[in-house]
């Protein structure tokens, strides 16, 4: 203990010793930063997750092929770290590798699977968390000058769980940001914490879900991906629907050979193999007589013709959404949370600071 200096705790000494021993075993010094080779290779995840987050915002679609190389890299680095820990002291193997790895693979992986199974995560979100559980089971250590990152550690150093809790904290902050933005704009209503208003002409290029029905605001409504599927299937644009809603409510105007509906993605490869809007003189009197008033907009016909369920959309939801979009100039939508954005931000925050939740509470 020096004059005015603090007494180093046992934990501080252990963390410093482990960090130095791991770095020396790997024998790597790069640009003034000392870290193991596996820890340096893990930084490859940063640009990949950044790209995936941008892709998630723009299209809500991330190919499974993105995760395969990272999963392979994570498996290799996991074995590598295990070998380094096995050749270090017994406490390093047991407490710095085996325990956090068991939590990562035995807890984070099942959480990702269960949330996907119950619809809380999309497929890409679940795969991203599975990859993180493999790639970051233990806390990495990066020394730059006199500083070691992450700045804080947790009692059980499971880094993938730290990333997950950071992502959840960031995800919780999104509704708060929506409320603040809507309040500052003077938009006070029951859905201001989950949505915002957009002009009708932005809807075809927007992801999310309508928060309106003809009577006013609602907490759930038509998925905009399902809307795009319907319009592509019929060979229509939203502008067509708004110009002549009475005509397109009539199921007699449904095309004989609809177009492929795609998966509703904004950037989908849309083909017109038929399905063009039926001209007035092509709707025969017999077709008009046979048309059922029980299926306005041809909603049931659409859902029966396409493979799958159009994201769980019901005929009633589709009809209600079309009625809203046919009339209103501005509609409220819930953009949802592209979860790969909080995951990426949670990863960056974890690498720099550590666990925000633990750091705040303790």
TrEMBL record:
GO-annotated molecular function: aspartic-type endopeptidase activity
Prepilin type IV endopeptidase peptidase domain: residues covered: 44-175
Alphabetized Pfam families for the sequence: Arc_PepC_II (PF06847), Peptidase_A24 (PF01478)
Keyword Protease among record annotations: no
Composition bias, Acidic residues: 279-297
Region (Disordered): 244-298
Keyword line: Cell membrane, Cell projection, Cilium, Flagellum, Membrane, Transmembrane, Transmembrane helix
Family matches, as InterPro entries: Preflagellin_Peptidase, Preflagellin_peptidase_C, Prepilin_IV_endopep_pep
Compartments it resides in: Cell membrane
Membrane-topology annotation of the record: Multi-pass membrane protein
Transmembrane region(s): 65-86, 92-116, 128-149, 161-185, 339-361
GO-annotated cellular components: plasma membrane
Preflagellin peptidase C-terminal domain span: 317-356
Major subcellular location class: membrane
Name recorded for this polypeptide: Preflagellin peptidase FlaK
């Amino acid at each position: 203990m020096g004059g005015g200096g603090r007494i180093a705790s046992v934990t501080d000494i252990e963390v410093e010793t482990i960090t130095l021993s791991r770095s020396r075993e790997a024998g790597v010094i790069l640009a003034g930063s000392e870290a193991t080779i596996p820890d340096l290779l893990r930084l490859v995840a940063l640009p990949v997750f950044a790209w995936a987050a941008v892709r998630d915002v723009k299209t809500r679609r991330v190919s499974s092929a993105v995760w395969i190389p990272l999963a392979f890299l994570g498996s290799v680095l996991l074995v590598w770290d295990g070998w380094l820990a096995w050749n270090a002291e017994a406490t390093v193997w047991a407490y710095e590798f085996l325990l956090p790895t068991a939590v990562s693979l035995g807890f984070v992986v099942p959480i990702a699977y269960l949330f996907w199974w119950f619809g809380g995560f999309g497929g890409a979100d679940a795969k991203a968390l599975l990859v993180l559980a493999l790639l970051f089971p233990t806390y990495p250590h990066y020394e730059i000058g006199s500083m070691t990152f992450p700045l804080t550690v947790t009692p059980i150093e499971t880094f993938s769980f730290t990333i997950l809790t950071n992502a959840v904290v960031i995800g919780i902050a999104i509704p708060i940001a929506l409320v603040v933005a809507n309040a500052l704009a003077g938009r006070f209503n029951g859905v201001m914490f989950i949505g915002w208003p957009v002009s009708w002409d932005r809807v075809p290029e927007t992801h999310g879900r309508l928060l309106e029905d003809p009577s006013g605001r609602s907490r759930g409504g038509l998925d905009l991906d399902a809307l795009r599927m319907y319009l592509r299937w019929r060979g229509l644009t939203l502008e067509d629907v708004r110009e002549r809603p009475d005509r397109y409510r009539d199921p007699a105007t449904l095309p004989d050979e609809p177009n492929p509906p795609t998966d509703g993605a904004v950037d989908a490869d849309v083909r017109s193999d038929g399905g063009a809007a039926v001209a007035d003189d092509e709707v025969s009197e017999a077709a008009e007589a046979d048309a059922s008033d029980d299926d306005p907009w041809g909603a049931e016909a659409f859902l029966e013709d396409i493979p799958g369920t159009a994201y769980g959309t019901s005929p009633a939801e589709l009809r209600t959404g079309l009625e809203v979009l046919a009339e209103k100039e501005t509609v409220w939508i819930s953009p949802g949370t592209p979860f790969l954005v909080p995951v990426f931000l949670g990863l960056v925050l974890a690498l720099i600071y550590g666990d925000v939740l633990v750091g705040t509470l303790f």
